[in-house]
Design brief:
The protein has helices at residues 2-7, 15-34, 54-57, 59-69, 116-130, 140-143, 157-161, 180-188, 204-218, 222-231, 245-249, 269-273, 287-303, 311-318, 396-408, and strands at residues 75-82, 85-96, 102-103, 110-111, 240-241, 256-257, 260-261, 283-285, 321-326, 332-337, 342-344, 360-364, 368-373, 378-384. By secondary structure, it is of the alpha+beta class.
């Protein structure tokens, strides 16, 4: 600071000017010290230092090149990490192919789609549980009295988190056409389509309702509560609902809506009708930010060093719960879900088959996936905009293959 003053010939200034300069310099130093972007990067590790084979990891490049050539996606960002740091961060292909081509970069911001569910909504619920503001065994109606209709009075918060509530996956889009207030009234009035606890049905409706619980209990909408209690403490400055103009410019576009490209605008039609903020979708973020969350989760689970949740809370959130059911042919099937996370279920193709049973993760409709495995001390982040430009593409098998390569690359 003294050098900055000398450069400004501080000693020769009048008292008023000196005071103004002093305040200016303090403001600059404060901004530099507390700029969230300075949380910048986690430690970087060479693959061999992280006990991963760089030769085996190199196979990922060929898989992705093939997927891009087959138009499974325009491009992607892949980040591989361990608790000690980031091992690999690479951008592939393009973030945009229409109306012109634009290369993908490793700081691209993505519409995270259903990664919103665990990262924002479920983690917010667990913060409220930890603060003794609610319990996973609470009935939903305890916090949302209007929910206690159509025989829904016994559905608990945990039932919503693991998708065994019996509620429909998605209610009709017409329910959202009269604005958020009416949409939420109709959401709470829905009738179950299956008896409570008898069937695993992955449901956006479950997490929309959980988002409403966060707001009712905390007094803040889920976007603000998640920002204050998850993203700011973890220095996730590029993760938010309703991204800033700068983050919108860095976002990967998805499809066209009403004649314009959605870029930094939520792709999910119901979240869009809820003004971009909902419990099931609406979150945007970058690979580096998701690495901060994954690193904190591993630190919390293994060493009780999380900045957002206690070790016991992480364990509650990531302990597998068995849901008995049947496949499309009526054959018995078991799905294993955590409190907001996928673990081993019919939705786990983006997980691969090599992670330990402790692994938890999730995918998103736009082409996103995050898997964290305390058992192997690994996490894999796969972010794409596979729905660009025309709503097609398919990346879940690719994400699963990448996870398998990463696990097989271990040399410890």
């Amino acid at each position: 600071m003294r050098r900055m003053m000398d450069a400004l010939e501080y000693s020769n200034m009048q008292p008023l000017a000196r005071s103004l300069v002093h305040q200016l310099v303090l403001a600059i130093v404060f901004a530099w010290a507390f700029d969230p972007c300075r949380a910048a990067d986690l430690p970087r590790l060479e693959p061999e230092a992280a006990k991963l084979s760089s030769e085996k990891l190199a196979a990922i490049d060929g898989l992705i090149a093939t997927a891009i050539s087959e138009k499974k996606m325009p491009g992607c960002v892949v980040l591989i990490g361990r608790s000690a740091g980031v091992v690999s961060l690479k951008a592939y292909g393009n973030k945009r192919v229409e109306p012109e081509t634009e290369a993908m970069t490793d700081d691209t911001v993505f519409d995270l789609a259903s990664l919103t569910k665990p990262l924002a909504t479920a983690t917010s619920i667990m913060k409220l549980v930890e603060g003794k503001k609610l319990s996973l065994d609470d009935t939903v109606a305890k916090h949302l009295p209007d929910f206690a209709v159509e025989n829904k009075d016994k559905i608990t918060i945990l039932d919503l988190l693991v998708h065994r509530s019996g509620l429909i996956p998605d209610n009709a889009i017409k329910d959202y056409l009269e604005g958020p207030v009416k949409a939420k009234e109709r959401l709470l009035a829905l009738k179950p389509i299956a008896p409570l606890g008898t069937k695993f049905m992955y449901s956006d409706v479950n997490f929309m309702i959980l988002g409403e619980i966060v707001q009712r209990v905390s007094g803040e909408p889920v976007n603000q509560f998640a920002r204050n209690n998850i993203f700011i403490p973890l220095d996730m400055s590029e993760t938010m609902y309703l991204p800033t103009e700068e983050l919108r410019r860095r976002s990967a576009p998805t499809e066209k809506r009403d004649g314009h490209w959605m870029q930094g605008e939520v792709h999910d039609p119901r979240a869009f009708r809820l003004d971009g903020v909902a419990g099931h979708a609406g979150l945007f973020g970058s690979a580096r930010d998701l690495a901060r969350y994954a690193t904190d989760a591993l630190a919390g689970i293994n060493d009780d060093r999380s900045r957002i949740l206690k070790r016991q809370t992480w364990h509650i959130m990531t302990t597998p719960i068995t849901i008995e059911g049947a496949d499309q042919k009526g054959q018995p099937i078991r799905d294993f879900r955590g409190a907001g996370w996928d673990m081993r279920s019919r939705y786990s193709s983006n997980r691969g088959t090599r992670f330990s049973e402790a692994a938890f993760g999730h995918g998103g409709f736009t082409g996103t996936a995050l898997w964290i495995d305390p058992g192997t001390d690994l996490y894999v982040i796969f972010l794409s905009n596979r729905v660009h430009p025309a709503g097609k593409g398919a990346v879940n098998p690719l994400a699963g293959q990448i996870c398998e390569i990463v696990v097989d690359a271990r040399i410890d």
